[in-house]
Design goal:
heterodimer, A: alpha+beta, 5 strands, globular, B: alpha/beta, six-stranded parallel beta sheet, 7 strands, elongated
């Protein structure tokens, strides 16, 4: 339980870039640094995010989901190209994470992850459901992995 | 001699403000007329004091100095803002200038370059700390294929309703069904469609689908089957 508390705490720590630069720019910085550090390509497009005032939980969760997705693609999938799309489509924000890595057999992977008590995917799903969103996962061995997440946001533009 | 330029200092650390004051006290061209510790205070004091220059930190307790730069420029279009930050990354620098800052100074070199920076921005010139130019040039030299950040600004001009309509159109839903789905008339759907196409500079249904796929609004794989 203590371990989970610490994980929660770490999850909710707010990177300074979020406050200083806003979500779109913070994600762009995250992807850029990740790409430079790990020598793989991150293809990112954000749309409709700039100038959007999201609540604290939604913003930080989106940031962490992308971080988690990038790390999964690197560590488990050995991907060379990761595609990230973050786009608002009222009343939802759509987040797509795709990689060209090894892929996996979804039910087996989830069972293993559960037995090893690994964060990764199940934690992502949990975070998404806390925001009343939904997450879809598609993967096949040799075919890469695709995660599509939709979370609702409140209207605040004219 | 010309009139002294008035300065408002915005930084949440009293010691740092004190340091800036001390440096400026030795220079007869400038006069510190106020100090603010957060964004709200800064806005209030800018209105009150109408300073020529603002020395601005980026990390403030209530809002980012970059946001605040935009706010102050809006409030007082003639004010020249010099950012003083501990952040040396090109992203921060770009964002600050985009928000309307005239200069950017790295905190570590504030002691040497402060007066030089203030003199430049008070004449309306841009100023970038020499110790940061390495970062900025490196960024400019990055090959385009390694560039990871793309932000689609045209899409951001769509209203919430237009976003809803756009996604349904991209999914191939008919005008009639979209109208029913959103409880609006088919004519209104057509109006939305026309506005979307014009805002995004699109000319056909297929272009709209391609655009949507590129942004990740729709699943591309659905079109492979």
């Amino acid at each position: 339980v203590a371990l989970i508390d610490i994980r929660d705490l770490a999850y909710n720590l707010r990177p300074a870039a979020l406050d200083d630069l806003g979500l779109a720019q913070a994600i762009s910085q995250l992807c850029e640094e990740f790409s430079a550090r790990n020598g793989l390509t991150v293809d990112l497009i954000t749309a409709g995010i700039e100038g959007l005032k999201l609540d604290f939980d939604t913003e930080i969760t989106i940031y962490r989901l992308i971080q988690e997705g990038l790390n999964n693609a690197l560590n488990h999938a050995e991907a060379g190209l990761i595609t990230v799309r973050l786009v608002t489509s009222f009343p939802c924000i759509i987040l797509r994470l795709e990689d060209d890595g090894r892929g996996f057999d979804v039910p087996r992977r989830l069972a293993v992850a559960l037995s090893e008590r690994r964060m990764g995917l199940s934690s992502m799903r949990e975070r998404v459901s806390l925001l009343r969103g939904k997450m879809r996962l598609e993967s096949l061995p040799g075919k890469g992995t695709k995660i599509v997440i939709e979370v609702p946001y409140k209207e605040n533009r004219p | 001699m010309s009139k002294k330029k008035t300065i408002l200092i915005v930084d949440d650390h009293p010691f740092f403000r004190e340091g800036l004051r001390a440096i400026l006290a030795r220079n007869s061209g400038f006069e510190v007329v106020g100090e603010a510790g957060d964004g709200q205070q800064a806005i209030r004091m800018t209105k009150e004091l109408n300073p020529d220059l603002v020395l601005m930190d980026i990390s403030l307790p209530d809002k980012s100095g970059i946001q605040l730069t935009g706010d102050l420029r809006h409030l007082l279009p003639d004010v020249n803002i010099l950012i003083i930050s501990m952040h040396a990354k090109a992203d921060y620098i770009t964002k600050a200038f985009q928000a309307g800052a005239k200069g950017y100074l790295f905190k570590e070199s504030a002691a040497e370059a402060l007066v030089q920076g203030l003199e430049a921005v008070s004449k309306g010139e841009f100023f970038l700390d020499a110790s940061l130019s390495h970062q900025v040039v490196k960024k400019l030299m990055e090959s385009p294929e390694k560039k990871t950040k793309v932000s689609d600004t045209a899409y951001g001009t769509l209203t919430s309703r237009e976003q809803e309509v756009m996604r349904l159109l991209a999914e191939g839903i008919s005008t009639k069904d979209i109208a029913q789905n959103l409880c609006i008339s088919p004519k209104t759907v057509d109006n939305h469609r026309a506005n979307i196409m014009s805002k995004l500079n699109l000319h056909s249904a297929i272009e709209l689908v391609r655009y949507s796929a590129r942004l990740g609004l729709i699943d591309v794989d659905l079109w492979k089957d």
